[in-house]
Design a protein that fits this description.
By secondary structure, the chain is α/β, with parallel strands linked by helices. It has helices spanning about 25-40, 55-65, 95-105, 130-135, 175-185, 200-215, 245-260, 275-285, 315-325, 350-355, 390-400, 420-430, and strands at about 10, 15-20, 40-45, 70, 75-80, 90, 115, 140-145, 155, 165-170, 190-200, 220, 225-230, 240, 260-265, 290, 295-300, 310, 330-335, 360-365, 365-370, 380-385, 405-410, 430-434.
């Protein structure tokens, strides 16, 4: 049964989970690698490319720009970039902010590119004003039908686009910075980018820099990741990329295994931004045995409340918050204002669903406060997904340890990152029904 075709699913409480799983490949690295390969004339190879809706959106956009993308007999993906990207294309990044922001940078030098989305209540509501202002500084004409830099957006670049110095805010998202770094590698003049305020989600900036380095792009960055310079003599070259495991999906599986009595092995292909997560799990009382390519979790014990700096691992905040909903006491997830500007407001919207499930919470501008209890959620509630894979996975953690289970509406959005999430829950012994 394909549970993603149903408008709602029921996650039932479970006494025990057991088995071995492999999380999907990183959507963040995959999307960056597909775009870098598209910008390199010649053929690049990507091993372990993520099979998620966000990555498929990047593939569709890159093919529209002229890339040839095919899966090999060994399961790898070959991407052949065109000598020149196509002008005059209309691109749909789906519901993915990173796909949109990377492409806004990578296509800004073209004569005309238009961006649209059918997700008017999710990606369509997210502001791109920081990126629009920065592109205009660099000579790009940006035409908007709405306000605050919301889609649809048309970019007109051409000969008037130039390098120089530009500032960008990193307070709401680091994705704008990543998009500018891709653009800088395509300009005929040096580009200097200065982060004007604060930079959230630094691990994702490191991912961008790793991919650009693999593609042959030179980016000089200071130690604080606040100032960048890309010289004029750099260019994209074909490369071989190997994608590691997705941090959001891995964090969700860790929380799933930790929430109930379990013995679960998670086999991974390399971990991004999860060292802080493993330390946090140890602090709250979850035994995790770490080996070279696997993590073994023994869950179901008593949990202790603990605070967490969400800027260190943004993708882990929601599943960890769902987990400590079962700890007696108060936990604070701070430095997370940037989570308000994702597929949904991951503070207010997620908090609303926690409260529907019977979890006591509070919020501040950049903080989610969870008042947990060992009893957890009584269950027997209907919660919304808010177009967001992270909300679906985190509410599943709540449901598994609840007393009566939860119904999750519009569960299909989990496929943005982890299409096989519900199937994997069942493999471990969970019960998921439509």
């Amino acid at each position: 049964m394909d549970l993603l075709q149903y408008k709602e699913v029921q996650i039932h409480p479970v006494d025990k989970l057991e088995g071995t799983l492999a999380p999907p490949a990183s959507k963040s690295y995959s999307a960056r690698a597909v775009l870098a390969a598209t910008l390199a004339p010649g053929t690049s190879r990507i091993d372990n490319l993520a099979d998620s809706l966000n990555v498929q959106a990047m593939i569709d956009c890159c093919e529209a720009l002229g890339a040839q993308i095919r899966r090999t007999d060994t399961g790898a993906v070959d991407v052949t970039g065109p000598d020149r990207l196509r002008d005059g294309t209309t691109l749909c990044p789906g519901n993915s902010g990173i796909v949109l922001r990377l492409l806004l940078g990578a296509t800004a030098h073209l004569r005309r590119t238009t961006f649209i989305t059918p997700y008017v209540e999710s990606l369509g509501r997210r502001s791109n004003q920081e990126m629009v202002d920065a592109l205009r500084t660099l000579g790009v004409r940006c035409t908007l039908d709405g306000d605050h830099g919301r889609l649809p957006i048309t970019l007109e670049g051409g000969p008037g686009v130039h390098g120089g110095a530009v500032g960008i805010s990193g307070r709401r998202s680091s994705q704008f910075l990543s998009g500018l770094l891709y653009l800088g590698a395509l300009l005929d003049a040096p580009l200097e980018v200065r982060v004007e305020d604060e930079l959230k989600a630094r691990p994702m900036v490191h991912t961008t820099l790793r991919v650009l380095c693999s593609a042959g792009i030179r980016v000089d960055a200071d130690d604080e990741l606040m100032h960048y310079r890309i010289p004029a003599d750099t260019a994209f070259h074909p490369a071989h990329y190997t994608v590691g495991s997705d941090p959001a999906s891995t964090a969700a599986l860790l929380a799933v295994a930790a929430a109930v009595d379990s013995s679960v092995e998670i086999r991974h292909n390399g971990l991004e931004e999860l060292s802080g997560v493993l330390r946090y799990l140890a602090q709250i009382g979850v035994p995790v045995t770490e080996q070279q390519s696997s993590l073994r979790v023994h869950g179901g014990g008593d949990l202790s409340p603990c605070d967490f700096d969400g800027s260190k691992a943004p993708d882990a905040v929601l599943p960890l918050a769902a987990l400590v909903a079962h700890a007696d006491g108060t936990s604070r997830f701070y430095n997370i204002e940037h989570l308000r500007y994702k597929e949904c407001d991951r503070i207010s919207d997620f908090r609303r669903e926690l409260q529907r499930a019977g979890i006591s919470t509070e919020e501040e501008r950049d903080t989610l406060i969870v008042h947990g209890s060992r009893a957890g959620s009584p269950g027997d509630a209907v919660v919304e997904s808010h177009y967001d894979h992270a909300v679906v996975m985190a509410m599943s953690v709540i449901a598994l340890r609840s007393r009566s289970g939860l119904t999750i509406k519009d569960p299909q959005y989990v496929a943005q990152t982890y299409p096989g999430f519900f199937d994997d829950l069942r493999r471990l012994g969970g019960t998921v029904t439509a």
